[in-house]
Each structure stands twice: as structure tokens, then as C-alpha cells.
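[09:14] KT: can someone run the structure on this one? pasting the chain below
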Amino acid sequence: MSNSVGQNLIQQHFLRPTVLELQSKLKGSSGIPTNSLCATASLNQSLAQPRKYQLSTKFYGNSLSKRKQKLAMASSRALTFIPQAVLAADPAYENVGKFNIDGNIELQVDASAHTSGSITQVNFRIMYTSDSLILHWGGIRGRNEKWVLPSRQPEGTKNYNNRALRTPFVKSGSSSYLKLEIVDPEIQAIEFLIFDEARNKWMKNDGQNFHVKLPHRKTLISNISVPEDLVQIQAYIRWERKGKQMYNPEQEKEEYEAARAELLEEIARGASVDDIRSRLTEKGGQEKSGKESKETAVNETNNKIPDDLVQIQAYIRWEKAGKPTYSPEQQLREFEEARKELQSELETGVSLDEIRMKITKGEIETKVSKQLQNKRYFSPERIQRKQRDLMQLLNKHAVKPVEETQESISVETKPLTAVERFAREKELDGSPVMNKKIYKLGEKELLVLVTKDAGKLKILLATDFEEPLTLHWALSEKGGEWLSPPPSVLPPGSVSSDKAAELKFSTSNSADLPKQVQCIEMEVEDGNFKGMPFVLLSGGNWIKDNGSDFYVEFSQRFKQKDARDGKGTAKVLLDRIADLESEAQKSFMHRFNIASDLMDQAKDSGELGLAGILVWMRFMATRQLIWNKNYNVKPREISKAQDRLTDLLQSIYKTHPQHRELLRMIMSTVGRGGEGDVGQRIRDEILVIQRNNDCKGGMMEQWHQKLHNNTSPDDVVICQALMDYIKSDFDISIYWKTLNENGITKERFLSYDRAIRSEPIFRRDQKDGLLRDLGHYMRTLKAVHSGADLESTISNCMGYKAEGKGFMVGVQINPIPGLPSGFPELLRFVIEHVEDRNVEALLEGLLEARQELRPLLSKSSDRLKDLLFLDIALDSTVRTAIERGYEELNNARPEKIMYFITLVLENLALSSDDNEDPIYCLKGWHHSISMCKSQSAHWALYAKSVLDRTRLALASKAEWYQRILQPSADYLGSLLGVDQWAINIFTEEIIRAGSAATLSSLVNRLDPVLRETAHLGSWQVISPVEVVGYVDVVNELLSVQNKSYERPTILVARSVKGEEEIPDGAVAVLTPDMPDVLSHVSVRARNCKVCFATCFDPNILADLQAKKGKLLRLKPSSADLVHSEVKESELADSSSSNLNGEVPSSITLVKKQFAGKYAISAEEFTPEMVGAKSRNISYLKGKVPSWVGIPTSVALPFGVFEMVLADKLNKEVDEKLQILKKKLGDFGVLEEIRKTVLQLRAPPQLVQELKTKMQNSGMPWPGDESEQRWEQAWTAIKKVWASKWNERAYFSTRKVKLDHDYLCMAVLVQEVINADYAFVIHTTNPSSGDSSEIYTEVVKGLGETLVGAYPGRALSFVCKKNNLDSPQVLGYPSKPIGLFIRRSIIFRSDSNGEDLEGYAGAGLYDSVPMDEEEKLVLDYTSDPLINDGKFQRETLSSIACAGNAIEELYGSPQDIEGVIRDGKVYVVQTRPQM
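[09:31] RB: done, C-alpha cells below
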């Protein structure tokens, strides 16, 4: 039998091959042991008969199972035999070196002098204490002075640039120790230095390396050999002794040979083989006498049980146990227990045939067979996820808003180039731009501008080339063709040929340009041709577009953007990138090194700087930029440049946690790289493939030349395409399919500096060798180019060594230390299930792996980037798995879809910097699933609120991407000449590539299910008015709120926030957005008799949008809305012909006068002094039930603002304000007026009177705390006055023809109640008009999130007035934000225009707290109003009772605002419900 482990693996077979034939699915060894139930080696032969053994030397499952044959034992059954670990005698050592360092540090080196085939042990002892002492070392072979790196390395050893090993010493007392084991017999000496990392101190031997010769090894007697079974047991003992480490195949081989060497040492010292056998088998071999015959008989019977039956019985046991995850030791025990069960049956007289018939019924044999075929052998079908507190995932990294960041960046305005200035002049004539592109031609530029004017296309070409230039051009009706231009379009001076024309450029006569520009102008009739192909000729040389013809399209495919200002970007950085792009185009090495040089500037520019790098790298990755331009660079140079860049990204990731999401995205566009020969192997190993497989010509040689000239990520695709082609039995269409699906065409092949012109042609006898070698080569390619490839990242983290003859030669990647326990098994589970059709178990495994990895990503490590690339790969695999698993959800129950949503949402949270909202959404989904499983009556209603909130979170994520990335894509794309379509969809493609798009798809799938279950229908009708109008589609209601439509219009608005005005002429507003029923826009719609409704069904909404311009009738009910097309004649009869905005002329404002007081108490509130808001709150005092609180109030009455303005303190402010008011036709003036009002100074009399009134009323005076607190209060008062000129209020009064000068503003002053909840009550249901029920909306925190433009819905409920103890919840809250405040004062607007009959003026003006509210992200799963039924019922009932009492007090329907604090209801204002 061979002593080589490698030969054993190939030549030998286990007695249970179906059980034990186990290998990693990773291509190449990853060092990951397989976690399978029965993956264990079995010793089926008697230890007493060594010549009959048939044993494998591989450690399956890192454990060893042995069953003895014909050996007397104490029990009558087969045993799982674990041999006792016995340490061999210590070898004799000799001193090989003694050194004195710096006069006071002693170093002693001893080494064992062993026999041939053994390990040489080298012990170091240094009289020096440090926790950071390292041996920097290598081996010496013969006369070669170059260090070799031994394959066996102590734990903690790191490879230093493939030139040396670094092993840490262990400190003990006043000394430090280290032991090396040298297996390679050719290593004759060790050279080393000692380095103290903490003190940055090198220790040398008089300035030279330390050099110690190893002892000469003695020769063993040649005729001594060791039985293989004893070597196996000794290897197991060594493995146990070392803590049952995971070994890759190379390490297994070394361990096996080391075990053999130890036994040979014993024999050399005089021990016999029998002595060794007795020692090794002592534990299992006791109590033999008197029982040998019985044990023999039993063991003979054991061997009669076929292993396939044991396998099936083990599978049955595993299924009965619930398919748990077993450790290797548990797997071994389970297999032996299965054998024992079958053995017991045999002893009762049952035959093997009867056992087989019983246990192979049904599908069990098929299941086992399938497991074996897939090489999973009872590996668990799903992992057991750990229970974790979701809040541990929380990231709340504050990033300055873009506006703040921008201010900190010194923006230098880059002057326009001559060509750009020339283009700007030509665009000023106002003609629509159909196409515009600036090509970079080295240091020069070429502009192509296509405009349309009077049915003709004007084509302008301009360049700053100084040499004479000729345009060689044609026209085309489709891409790729050249048609000779007709004579009618040829400019003067043209020379026509068969399929083209030529025309010389002429010098522009513009005097304003910084340098000379040559140009050509021509005209073409619109519609006749699609585009213009052309090339340039200069000095006999053809100038092309990266090797291809230039081509300009005449159609306006996308709206052109003028991004020259660079607003919202790190403009200086992007200008620098554009300046360096011509250098970056030379090769990937140049681009990555330039990116590395720019990283400090990007980091200092903050979020926008890193966004700029991401945009640039993604333009590169998507082939929008040139990869290689006439520059030959070695692959190892590319790899080293990648390594440098990713090291820098890793460093920033450690120090800038607020930018980790952007950094991950940058890393995903860049390969991992690596120093040394990582890149050079790309060159070397393609030669190995050609030599091994006799394929040195044709396509393979052309690819070889490309690889030598400039390797790129395309090579990974080419390698995969070749393997797919070979696997398909040489179907060339499969080759092209793989290439084309990954963006590689024949044209791209031809564009390489070393073009690939041929297709692959191989012989059938080359198939196996090519697949093997290309598989090895793929790892090399991915090691450089595919940083986020799952298999590559797992291998990099788990470690691997050289494998495959000629491939990865000398490569050793050490496992990352400190990985969580069980992590390798988890990754193996992922790899084994990565292609499963049913993806649920895979998703659980992926997310469990990400959760286990997460703590390591926040720790400093020199291997952090490998962990990051692994995490990025796991993240990406979640997305692809979900997309593959959509079919699994086609007929799934709601809880299954919700569970998938939780998995994707967890994945999104793990990848996000600010993930508080997604985490609370995730908690909400878990609560929804729990409610569903417990059959709660409201589970679907609650789940719908979580779904709505999830949509808002996704919208917020998309807005962040758009705000951060798109301006940089627009600006940099325009500078680099990137295709406009690629610029326009940049952010969209970023979103599509992440979990957000996948989550959105799942949410859309679940939405109709929840609406049907909760009986919500497709509509929520907020204002049920039947109307007829013409459909118009807008993005935002805000953008048209000041518009006047000339005919009745039904607006379909994609976005409605809640604070907008409804434009004149609009008879309906339909939206997918979710404004609260009691928001400002909802109240305005009902007051103005405008139909207002939310549509939940995207299909219905799309149908309405498609009817743009058509005349429709809308017929709403409380829960539905029906639309139908009508004829023009029906419009005249429709009530909707009375357009919104036609207000009775009787509405007038009466200007209020100053009554002589700057401040008044509640007892002084009269119509001449304050508005209805103040008077109503005063009226309630003492009249509502005692359990309803009314806040204490004072006011600044009408006329105070005018008096302050007229005070001599504010003369300049008054004069400026009068000038501005004369310009009120201009939009921007309103903001200028508001800023001017804030410049007012407070007259001393106002300060004194307000202080006295507040103190006499028991309210705190801000000035008592500090002068600064009074200034805060004064600013808040001025903001209330300034809100008279906010856009919404100003245009509202103008619409109804109210004199804006007559609008007077009192200010109601109240102490803020720091609310637990805020509510708005309508004592008549506004949606149905039912006066018998109260409708209420409740939010957590202050009420501004309810009445203001805060996204999401409030909790809503109705309550019958005759049954106030039984509130009925209509909808649960989805608002992600709550507002909370310290004890403070609020200043409320109280104008004379808020409660005019027939005019809904309420809510137009601002109420301003003295202190800024704190925004908190809300967790509804811990809110008793949501999850405590008793608390919910009592709270909602008390709100309804308060509303009913106030309505009875006034005798009319009321619109009431209030709060709840510590269970007590407070009413802060009431007004008549309109």
C-alpha cells in the first residue's frame, strides 16, 4: 500500500464508499470539512491482522471511526473506537545556536536530531518579554540563498509578501518561546530575524540574519515498515492532541507522514510493532480473555449488514429526530447507533431481506440515493438559526446632509474648454437639443451637437485639433450601415464617393474662445435618416472612436441634462478625475493607482467624495470607460494596483463607519488583487493549459496574447464560456450565449489591443483535461478580478494551498484567524445548497453566515477586506436566490411571503449604514407573522401597515441613492462622454442590483393578498365627491399647486405629501401616496368639494394614467371608486363644471387694529383681540369634564406685529419690507420677506408685558433661564408672523381674492405638553358623512407628524357615539418618524383668516415651538397602543369621549386637536368641522 495520502485518495476505497465518499463542492480545496451525518472513516478490519487492512488515510469529518474484527472485546457489538492519546517520548535535542543580542539579551536555538522521514523540531528561547515578539524567518535549501517557505507553519503564522513567514513568540515569565517543525528533508538551515512590533525594533546578528544549521538526520534500517492501520491511529491521536483542527488535503498528507515518522522513531529506539499496537489499542483491547470466540462471531455477523442498509437506517433516525445539524462526533455516533439497531434485529432472527423490505418502503431509498448523488449524505436540509436580538443589528451613523458637506468642500469653478464654450454658444439659440456628446481624443476634444429647427436637423462638429482635419462621413437608416449622402445635404466643398463624403473642417470665426476651434455645420431633413457614421482623417492617419467608427443618433432618446455646474457633487474631485481619465484609460493598473492616489481627497470630501469614486468605478465596471489603450501591462502589476486600492478602502472602512455602505459598493466594482505573483499566475498558467492540452493555436493563442498584454474581468467570462462550451459537447452557440449574456460580443473581441478573432476548436480527447485545467485557471482569474465571487471569497477566508499540477504553484492563503465556531460548516452548507430550486433553506444559511460575520466586520484586521468581499458575495447571493425563488411563492400562503420578506429585509439591514427604520420594519413583520399564526382578527390590517412602512423605507433608500449618486453620475458622465442612457439610468441600476428592488417585488406580491384579507379594497376615498373631468398626470401635487387649470381636471399625482394646496380647476386628486385623512390637503379637498382618494392597486392606477387627456366620470363610495369615460356633452350637465376655486364674493377680511396691549391673558380673549383658535381654547376652560386637560394660554393680540414693525428699532426692516411687498408677483420674494421679518427686534414694552402675563398665568418665562432662551422664544414668535408670507397661505388668499394686507396674525402662547400620543378628532366621519360616529387619527409623539408633511399613515379608528367604549380600529400606523420635545413653549398662529365661513384657512400658517423637536424612528412592536388590547381600548375610548363632550358643548361637529400624556387627555384646540 502506498504511503501517500494523495494516492490513497485516488486508489483506495472505503468499505462503505457510498457513505464515505465525501468531498467539498468548492472547486479546489478550501480547507472546509464537510458537515455530513455519516462522513466518517471506518476501520473494518481487525487490528490484530495488519496485513489485511484496507484503510483510507483521509480524515472525513475530522473524526475516525474504527470497528474491530476478530478481536476479543468486552461487549458483543461493534464499537466506535477512539484510541487513547499517548504522547511519544521527548526527542533528544542539541544546541544549534546561542546568541547574545545588544549585550544583554540571550537567544538559544535547539533542534532535534531525528532519523530520516521524521520531523525536525526547532525550539527558540529568548530572554526578552514582549507580547508582540515575532520570528521573521525562512528555510535554506543547499546553496540557494533565497528563503523557501515551509508548508508546515505554527498557528498564527502569516505569509509576508510570499518572501518570509512571521510567527509570534509565546511569552512565559521573563522569556519568550517558539517551536517550529520542519518536515522538508531538503531544508538544511533556518535563517531569521526577530521583530518587536510594539517597539518597532528589529533584532539582528551583528547586522546580519541569524543562521542556524539543522542537525544531520540519521538513516533508518531500510527493512522496517509500520502497518498502515497504526499510522492511521497515530494520526488520529495527533489530530486530537492539536485540538481537532480542520485540515486541507495538503495538511492531511503532512499529518499522516508525521504520524508515520513518530512511529518509526519508536521502532528505531527499540520498540516492536506489537508493543506499539498494544499501546495504541490499549483502551479498546482490555478484557479479551475468555471472550474472544464470542466477539469474533459477533463481529463476523456485523460485517454481514450491508452498508447501504446502515446508511438508510441512519437517514431514518435523522428524519425522526427532526433533521438536526450534527457535529462530526454526533454523526459518527448516529451511524453506529443505526448499525446497532439493525444488529439487534438480526439477533432476534429477522433476516437481512426482511430488514431491507421494511426500511426501504416508500421514497426513503430514493431520498437517500439522491442525497448520495449530491454528495450531501444527510447534511441538514436547513440550518438551525440562532435567536438574536434584532436591535444588535442597529447602525445609526450620522452623516452630514449633502448641503452641509458641500459647504465644507472648496469648489473651484473649472473654466469651460474652448469646445465646451463653443457648444454653449450654439445652444443659446433655443433649438431643442436632440443629441450632444463630447469625445475625448487624447488631450483634445470633439463635440457632436444635433439640434432640431423648423423640421430640419442641424449637425455641428467642433474640435480643438490644431492640425488640418477632414471629416469622412455618411448617413444611415439603421446601425452599422454607410449610405452616401444625397447631394441636397452636402455642404459646399464636399467631395462625394461611392458610400461616403469628405469635407474639410474650417476655423471658427468666434473671437471669444480661449483657443482655436475647427468646425463643420450641415443640415439634414428630419425623418429621412436615423444617424451619421463618421471617422476623421489627419495627416494621413485615421482617427476613430476606440477603434470603431464614430456614430451619432439623430433621435432624442433621452432628455439631455446640463450638469456643468456640478451642484450636489464633490466637484473639485470629479474635475480631477476627468483630467486624469486619459491616463487612466491606458490600463487597469493606471486606473487603480490613480484611484488610490485620489482616495484621501475623496475621504476628506465625505459622502459626496466617495460617491464620486463609486460613480467612476461603476462607469468602468459597466464598460462605459476604456479599459486598455495601447499599453502593455503585466497582470501582476494590475493585481498589485488592485491590492493597493482595496487596502485603502479597507482602511477607510475601519475609520469611517458612517460611509461603509458606499465603501462596500466601491469594493464590489473592484477585484481583490494581491501582491507578489497573484497576478503573474494569469500569464504563466495559460501556458500550462496550452502545454497540457495541446491547444497552442487559434483562439487559445489569441486569448493567450490578450492575457499577456492586458488581462481584465472579461477573462473570467471567457473562461466560463469555454467551460460551458466544452460541457455542452462543444456546442458553439453555448459559448456565444455565455459571452453575450455577460456583455461580450464579437465586436468587443475585435476591439482588444490583441484581438480575439477565432472561435474555439477542441478535440474530444481534450475535454477532461481542459475542464480540469480551466477550472483551476478560473480560480486564478477570480483571485484577481472577482473580489465578490462567492467561491473565491470563501476560499480566501478559509485558506487554501497549491493544487493542480502547474496551477496556483507556491500559493498559500492562510485561514483567517478568529472565525466563529461552526462557521466553515455554515459556509459549506451555503455552497452545497447554492443552486437549490427551493431557496428558503439557502436564504437562512446565507443570512446566518452574514450574522456570524457581522461582528468581525467592525474589528480591525489585516484580513478585513477578505471578510468584506465574502460578506458582499453573501449579500449578492441572497438577491439572486430570491429572484430564483419567486416561483416557490406563486401559490404560497401569506405567512410564507411575509417570512421571505423578513429574510430580504434582514439582508438589507445588514448592508445599510443607517438601518434603524428597516430594523423596526423587520420587527413589525415578525410581529405580523406571529399574529397570523395565532389567527388574530387584525393580523392582515396590521401587516398592511408594516407593508406601507416598508414601502416608505424603500422610497427613502431610493431617494438617498438619487440624492447622493445621480448628480455625480450626471456631472462626471458629461465630462467623460459617457452614453447618456447610461447616465440617466445610473441610480436605477444601482437600486436594481441590491436587496431593495427584490424587497419591493415581494411587497408588491403581498399587497393585494393583505388588502383582500383585511377587506380594504383597492381605494381609500378621503373626500367622496362625484366629478367629471379631463385626466392629467403629474409627478408631484406640489409642483402644480399654484397652477390654474382652464378646464375641469382629474389629477393623477404620484406624490402627495399632505401639506399641498389643490390647484384651481382641479376637481379630483387621485394618488398612490398615503396622506392622512385629516391632513391639510385632505381637509382642503373636502372643504372645496374635490374628490380625493388613494389607490392601492398599481394596475388600476396605470389604467388611469393611460387615460391622460380623456374625459372621465368618477363615482366614489366610502370604500371604492368607479371611473368611466363620458362624452363632452355630459360635461355641461356635471356639477363639476363649477370648478374648484370659485368662492362666493361675500368672503372678506376685516383688518384688525392694535388694541394697546402687547400681551393678554386668556380672560381677555375677544374677537377684536385674537382669532377663533385662542377664543375656543379659552371657552373650553372649566366647561369640559375634569378629566380633560386644557393648557394654560396667553396671546400676543392682533396688531402687535404691525406695532413692532413700526417701532423705530425696526425702521430699516420696515423700509425693506415695503420694497419687497411691491415685488410680490415674483415667487422668490416670499422667502425674502420671511427672512426680513426674522430681523425684527423686540420692543422692551413687549418683552415686559409678555413676561408679566406668562408669569401671572403660571407659565414659565424663558428669560428666567437665560437671555439665549428668550431669543429662542422671540425667534419662534417672528416665525409665526413670517408664515403670513408662506407660499401656500399667500396663494390660497390670492385664489379667493382676499386682500392679503388685511390678514392679521395673533400669536397663541401655550406650554408644550410632551405628548406620548397626539390626535385629531372629527366628530362627524369625514369620509362617509356619518354624524353618528366619530373619526380619529392618532400618532406617537407630537401632532405635527399628523397635520404636517410627514410620510405614512396614523392609527385611525371610528367610534359610535352611542357606544363610546367600543372603538373600531380601521388602520394601524405606518409613520416611521415621531416628534418629541423637552418642556417648552409653543407659539401658535391665530389669524383672522383661518375660520372664515366658506373658506378653509385653518392649517395654512405655522405653529412654532421654542425648542426644536427631536425626531425619533418609531418601534411600534413595543407600543402598548398597538399590542396591548386593554390599553388600546381604554385610550381610544377616552379620546372619543373627549371629542363627544366637546361636540355636545358647542352643539356642532368639531375638528379637535389634542394629546395624551401619562394616560391623561389634553385638548389644545378646537374649531368647527368643515
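[09:33] KT: thanks! The chain has a mean pLDDT of 81.
[09:34] RB: yep, looked fine to me
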